Amino acid sequence: MNKIALALPLTALLVACGSGGEGGSGGSQGGAAGELQAVGSSTVYPFTTAVAESFMRANRGTRVIVESTGTGAGIKLFCGGVGEQFPDMVNASRAIKKSEYDACTAAGVRNVIELPIGIDGLTLIEANGAPQLKLTVADIYKAIAANPFGKGTNTAQTWRDVNPSLPPVKIRVLGPPPTSGTRDSLAELILTKGCESDPAMKELKKTDEAQHKDVCTKVREDGLFVEAGENDNLLVQKVAGDPGSVGVLGYSFLAENADKIRPVEIGGVLPTEQTIQNLSYPGARKLYVYVKGEHLQAKPALKTFTAEYARMWGSGGELQKRGLVPFGGAEAQAAAAQASAMQPLDAAALK
């Protein structure tokens, strides 16, 4: 069921354990109180799915529905309101934005609890048999930006067009749609940094932030950048079957498909657990689950579920085996403390 659900990103994973009897700490709960729903990031989806499976084995009578909608769309659903028709949790491959939090509070969702679950590496992949690419953030920006450095429509057709040291392979990048947190991470971690390799772009941000964002993050629409949807397993298949194309997704999918694909080196660094954890890899990013505090009293299983998540996300835990890079040191301690305290977000800290 897990493999089928992962291949259908807009289909909920619904695993209902037996409704009779008691088991685990959650006991038997019926109706809405015994059902938890999570939506959001396709990157975080496999991790929350794994926790859901473990949780339901230990808590018979409680079911967990996990749906991959993309971070932005998931947060919109999560922030829609309070009540059984609205999700209890949202998976996110980036931090919630101030504008999204404001939409939450306007709809009555005033206790948004942030759980950092670990670190991921925004990864560029290529087929194992393809000509090997070694890129910089500037190369990537110049290849897929709509208007590189504000100097006109992008006319580059091959990687050699953007950098003479690269092979004359046609540019074809399969990436996430605008609703995805991975798209936001691509813009923030890769495209903007590549854009700001030109000092004039750094100055532009000081004088015209809107134009800076447009020049630095808008991608070309002539078919060389392809929005591949939220199904990362399908993206892997497409890249593996089309040597020369490049895909953009989370590190965990690379680890699971090493027989078909390999990572593209960025700035001389390959994504590994070590380079992601120490943040030397340019695409390293935190992953999150947000919990609706208003649902905690009506659904006691929600607190138990977050405790199960915290048990599985640590070093040597089951989620690490699935590709999640665990926090180390003080960050690990802070994440564990937050999973216990369930402290709501301070809006003043949001961007």
TrEMBL record:
Q: Which Pfam families match?
A: PBP_like_2
Q: Which InterPro entries match?
A: PBP_domain, Phosphate_ABC_transporter
Annotated ranges, domain PBP: 30-308
Determine the domain of life of the protein's source.
Bacteria
Q: Which UniProt keywords apply?
A: Signal
PROSITE patterns, alphabetized? PROKAR_LIPOPROTEIN
* Record protein name field: Phosphate ABC transporter, periplasmic phosphate-binding protein PstS
Source species: uncultured Sphingomonas sp
